[in-house]
Write a structure and sequence with these properties.
- It is a single chain.
- By secondary structure, the chain is an alpha/beta fold.
- It has two domains: 177 residues, Alpha-Beta Complex (Aspartate Aminotransferase, domain 1), CATH 3.90.1150; 221 residues, Type I PLP-dependent aspartate aminotransferase-like (Major domain) (Aspartate Aminotransferase, domain 2, 3-Layer(aba) Sandwich).
- The chain is 43% helix and 12% strand.
- It has a seven-stranded mixed β-sheet, with helices on both faces. The protein has a three-stranded antiparallel β-sheet with strand order 9-12-11.
- Helix 3 runs antiparallel to helix 10, helix 5 packs across helix 9 and helix 11 runs parallel beside helix 16.
- It is globular, with a radius of gyration of 21 Å.
- The chain starts with 6 loop residues before the first helix and ends with a helix.
- It binds pyridoxal-5'-phosphate.
- Pyridoxal-5'-phosphate binds next to helix 5.
Length: 423
């Protein structure tokens, strides 16, 4: 018997980031040299103490409370109190199997519409599509550093039926940029005035290259849900542990999400939750680890951005995370001769001709005919890079030369892009 999925689900594709990883593996297995700037995965090993704690707790076999292990919620709450200076109690925290699942459930629970500035993370939109949720994308601009401007937000709130959920992600995937305090305050004030709930996706917050991430919850604590987890800063994407911190005012939403969790995934893997407690409590080791991760990412990100900029690619130096969002618009005429008119063809041809994997801007919500793409500078050995950075005193500046051969593939990949563009 043949059965088809519901019509609105027929057009769904696999998430672009996961699909590109499978494609890169396939090409590499076929013997092609691949420069993997595709997948957004931390290159670093999980901190030793966290892995050891997971091993030590592997015997734990029972389900945990749906909301998450109390000790973990307590540690996450303390972390937010301390770093974001927002008053969060353990009762306001919800642990989930990755923040992706929590974001999906939030969009399921809320009425009204979602507002998303683009370029944006690949999954917000498709989640809305699965849920038949009204989604309004706001096109931000290169000239504004891809930031959502207050007037764009106000106009959108007026034009789209509420209640509204605004998803803000900073430091951002795919651009590696963030908001300053003034920008956050202005957006927070508009949201307060219009009763907009903010989902503040701060999964890269601890990977702000200078360790200076500011949460918008500081300026709008009663309407902001902070989203984060172990996937990026702790390099544990495959462990599937994310968390939301809700304002007290949104406790009904939190409770409904927990009810849904109880009928779907039940709880996050028990040993992983115990290991996560360690990750949030062992401040000294984690800060040491993060210092080096940040310094390495800053060095490599800056190298990639400046090398591309020197070759006339439009690009901003990154502030956090491990992404760049280059715009190849200045090469429009040359690309036209190669029959390239959009970001998808650009990435496909680049991959075929030179083995460089980038993800087209179109999957991040940008118009198809723009010539931008995401470059994830994570194709280096993170363990060796950590060793290298640790051998250099904290006071000294880590340069790309210090990293030597560790970044050979990154350098070659960037050079291949430039040669291909100029060919
Ligand atoms: C901006 C952003 N938000 C959320 C997620 C989801 O992360 P996880 O489900 O692993 O917590 C990702 C993962 O790539 C991301 O880049």
């Amino acid at each position: 018997m043949i059965q088809n999925p519901e019509t609105h689900l027929n057009k769904l594709k696999r998430s672009a980031t996961l699909a590109i990883n499978e494609r890169s593996d396939k090409l590499a297995n076929e013997g092609k040299t691949i420069y993997r700037f595709g997948i957004g995965q931390s290159p670093f090993p999980i901190p030793d103490m966290v892995t050891k704690t997971l091993q030590g707790n592997a015997f734990r076999k029972n389900y945990l409370p749906v909301d998450g292990l109390f000790e973990l919620r307590q540690s996450v709450a303390k972390y937010h109190q301390h770093t974001d200076t927002v008053a969060i109690e353990p009762e306001q925290v919800l642990i989930g199997p990755g923040s992706k699942e929590l974001i999906f459930t939030l969009q399921l629970v809320l009425g009204g519409s979602t507002i998303i500035p683009t370029p944006c993370w690949v999954s917000y939109g498709p989640q809305g599509q699965i849920l038949k949720r009204k989604t309004e994308f706001i096109q931000t601009n290169y000239a504004d550093n891809w930031r959502l401007l207050p007037n764009q937000l106000t106009k959108t709130i007026k034009g789209v039926s509420g209640p509204h959920l605004l998803i803000l992600n900073y430091p951002g995937n795919p651009d590696g940029l963030t908001y300053n305090q003034d920008e956050l305050e202005k957006l927070a004030n508009i949201c307060r005035k219009n009763n907009v709930i903010i989902l503040s996706d701060e999964i890269y917050g601890r990977l702000h290259h200078k360790g200076k991430h500011i949460s918008i919850a500081r300026f709008y604590p009663e309407g902001t849900i902070i989203s984060s987890g172990l996937s990026k800063w702790c390099a544990a994407g495959g462990w599937r542990l994310g968390h939301f911190a809700f304002p007290k005012e949104l406790k009904n939403i939190r409770n409904t999400m927990a009810c849904i969790a109880s009928e779907t995934y039940s709880c996050v893997t028990t040993p992983v939750q115990y290991a996560a407690v360690k990750a949030y409590q062992d401040h000294t080791n984690m800060e040491e680890y993060l210092f080096h991760c940040r310094r390495i990412l800053e060095t490599i990100g800056y190298y990639c951005a400046t090398t591309l900029a020197t070759a006339k690619v439009k690009i901003q130096p990154p502030i956090g995370a491990f992404y760049l969002f280059p715009d190849f618009g200045p090469f429009k005429a040359l690309l036209k001769r190669k029959n390239i008119h959009d970001s998808e063809t650009l990435c496909e041809k680049l991959l075929q001709d030179s083995g460089v994997v980038l993800l087209p801007g179109s999957v991040f919500g940008r118009p198809k005919n723009e010539l931008n793409a995401r470059l994830a500078y994570v194709n280096f050995d993170g363990a060796l890079a950590l060793q290298n950075s640790r051998s250099l005193s904290k006071e000294r500046k880590l340069t790309i030369d210090h990293l030597g051969d560790i970044v050979a593939e990154v350098k070659q990949g960037i050079n291949h892009i430039i040669t291909w563009l100029e060919r």
